Amino acid sequence: MKIDFESGIPIYLQIADQIEDSILSGMFPEDTQIPSTTEISTLYKINPATVLKGMTLLVDGGILYKRRGIGMFVHGGAKEKIRAKRRRSFFDDYVCALLAEAKKLEISPDEVIRMITEGAAK
Q: Which residues form the HTH gntR-type domain (predicted)?
């Protein structure tokens, strides 16, 4: 995990995103334990409450679950939940913005598709 202390993104959100990235990459497979709040907070020299806040977001989202006295684990199906959430976000953040800008520049949807296809081929 990598935390950017200079970023405008709150640390707890960065932690949640980094854990999600680790799940997507297979570093934290489904139904396995992730590092504890203490381990993460010690490693990055941040408040354990900040780490817990990021993990709580993932618990609330059905990505992680707690096993009392043992720690946090990755839910079965977490990878697909993360992909679905990020696909929606990708559409909202990038595709809609791309199409809005294309409309301002009078670029047709077909031309946008052609540009994307050319870019992917490079």
A: 9-77
Contact 71, 28 (CB under 8 A): no
When pLDDT is averaged across residues 46-71 and rounded to a whole number, the result is 96
Helix (H, G, I), strand (E, B) or coil at 92: helix
Residue 66 pairs with which residues in a beta bridge? 72
Which two structure tokens, joined as six digits, stand for 77? 């199906």
Q: How far apart are CA 86 and CA 78, in angstroms?
A: 12
31 vs 44: CA distance, rounded Å: 25
For residue 102, what pLDDT is reported? Answer: 96
What pTM, to 2 d.p., does this model score?
0.83
* pLDDT more than 70, % of the chain: 100
pLDDT, one tens digit per residue, over 83-108 is 999 999 999 999 999 999 999 999 99
Distances (CA, A) of 87 to 11, 32, 90, 105: 23, 24, 5, 26
Tell me which residue has tokens 């497979």.
29
Query: d(Cα 8, Cα 21) in Å, to the nearest integer?
Result: 19
Cα of 23 vs its chain's centroid, Å: 9
